[in-house]
Amino acid sequence: MSNEYSIWFIPDRDSDAYRRLSSIISEYAEVYDDAPEFRPHITILGGIDRDVSTLKKDVKNLAEECNPVQTVLTGVQCSTTKHQCVFLLVEPTVNILSAHKAMRDTCNIDHRMYVPHLSIIYSEMNITERLQIINSIDVSSLQGTIYSDEIALINTKEEVPDWEIIESYDLSLK
C-alpha cells in the first residue's frame, strides 16, 4: 500500500483568524454527517507518494527558504470533489505559487492545476447543498489577510480525522 502525504501552510494558531476558521469548520462538521473536522490550512502540495525520510528533508529545505506568508482570502467557492467541497479562495501570491512549484519539482509530480484555497468543508454533499452553503456564508466576515507562519508535512493516508502532522516548521523563527 502506498503512502500519501501533503504539505501545508498553517495559519498562526494563536490568531483570531485561525480560531474563526476552526470554528466554522467545526460547525459544518456538526451539521453534515460526512463532514469531518480538520485544521485550517492551505495545501502547498498533496497526493505525494514518496519515501517519508526523503520528504522530511525536502520539506525542511522548503521551510528554510520560505518566510511567513500573508494570505488574502478573496471569496468562497465550491467544486465537485470531496476535499474541495466548499472553500475560500486564496490570492495566488508569488510566495505561495513558488512553494508549490518547488515541491512539485522536488517530488517529480507532473503539473496539475493548482488553485490556492482554504477548505472549510470536506463532504460528498450534492452540488445544490454546496451552492446553498456558499450563498449562506457572510464572505465579508471571512475576507482579509491570514498570516501563515508554519509549514507542515502531513500524513494524509488515513481518513481525515486520523491525519497527523509528521514534521512542522515555524517560519517566524527566522
Q: What's the layout of helices and strands?
A:
Layout: E1 5-11, H1 16-31, E2 42-48, H2 52-65, E3 69-78, E4 86-90, H3 94-106, E5 117-121, H4 127-136, H5 139-142, E6 144-155, E7 164-170
Antiparallel strand pairs: 1-2, 1-6, 3-4, 3-6, 4-5, 6-7
Provide a descriptive summary of the structure in words.
By secondary structure, the chain is α+β, with helices and mostly antiparallel strands. The protein is 33% helix and 30% strand. It contains 5 helices and 7 strands. It has helices at 16-31, 52-65, 94-106, 127-136, 139-142; strands spanning 5-11, 42-48, 69-78, 86-90, 117-121, 144-155, 164-170. Strands 1, 2, 3, 4, 5, 6 and 7 form a 7-stranded antiparallel sheet that branches. It is globular, with a radius of gyration of 16 Å. The N and C termini lie far apart (38 Å).
